[in-house]
Amino acid sequence: MKFVDEFREPGVIGKACGEIRRLADPNRHYRFMEVCGGHTHAIYRFGLKDLLPPNIELVHGPGCPVCVLPMGRIDDGLSIGKDPDVIFTAFGDMMRVPGTQGSPLEHKARGMDVRIVYSPSDALELAKKNPGKHVMFFAIGFETTAPSTALILMRARALGLHNFSVFCNHVTIIPAIRAILDSPDMRIDAFIGPGHVSTVIGCRPYDWIARNEGKPIVVAGFEPVDVLQSIVMLLEQLNKGEAKVENQYKRVVPWEGNHAALKAMGEVFELRPYFEWRGMGFISQSALKIRSAYAEWDAESRFHVPGVRVTDPKAAQCGEVLKGVLKPAQCKLFGKECTPERPVGALMVSSEGSCAAYFNYEHRKNAVLTSIGA
Length: 374
Known about the structure:
- By secondary structure, the chain is α/β, with parallel strands linked by helices.
- It has two domains: 1-313, HypD, alpha/beta domain 2 (Rossmann fold, 3-Layer(aba) Sandwich); 318-364, no CATH class.
- It has helices at 10-23, 37-45, 65-68, 71-81, 104-109, 120-129, 146-159, 173-182, 195-201, 207-213, 224-240, 259-268, 299-302, 318-322, 354-371, and strands at 30-34, 56-60, 86-90, 114-116, 134-141, 164-170, 190-193, 217-219, 245-247, 269-271, 274-277, 281-284, 288-290.
- It has a five-stranded parallel beta sheet.
- Helix 2 (37-45) links the parallel strand 1 and strand 2.
- The longest helix is centred in the last third of the chain and has 18 residues, at 354-371.
- It is globular.
- Mean pLDDT is 91; it is low at 367-372.
């Protein structure tokens, strides 16, 4: 299969690893943050960490939109769904994310009309087929999924479909990276840039990271060779004393981004002054809200939303893991009270969450090795 098999070819992987060992200074410790949760999943799934020299540390960033959503926003969305005339719709990875009174699936078990959709257009079709109900779509994601939400809102307005609305939780990646770099307890040498987000926004928005912060960043794909090649490119920059933005994922990511997608987002959304991120607090201009021209399809305008800030369970250390301060297994609840089957924190829910990825691959691998005495 084009762009898959050739990026998993053992010989090429071996050459990339050899180049990494050649370039890495054995007297230096490197800390590279992969911003995107898709990269975290790939790193654990393919065992890439085990192929790297011990002095190259991969730090997991806040690139999973389900993971960074605070419990208060989940409660707000579910408060709308409690209306018997409302159908609550969301992507599947939202269904087990816990709010203070349970996850959407737990609310479904109690009688709430909760349905999984695979795209915003599914929710719109549901509204067409159920004119006596109001269909609310719980929108979530970085700039990757925001254009599809924008297009559906434009479609709903064009159709004059009045029993449909969106509860918008789209967040933006650049302010999150800025917050990480401003954190006093964080030391990052370079970034593996998010591939999916960059298909929409392009590479230019990362210029300030290299120019102002002196940190190299390479936008990367999600196959083993993609990730390893991005590390080679970062090491080459560091060895030359350079800091610039490079695009390893050229087969998918245009340097200037997707103009049509950006235009749709610009018409429908505007920046929120502040938005709360799980474990990171309020970050200015880090999320999108629906413009007043689309207020009729904005769930926050149509329904009463409590807007109460909820503190995460004290024992769960999601914030420290999200910021890269702790590794997943260093959380006191990891693999004990908090597992993919019974998650306490959001990082254990989504497949892109660092705790879920670590549990499903690294943790289980270590358990097998221990059981056979390896």
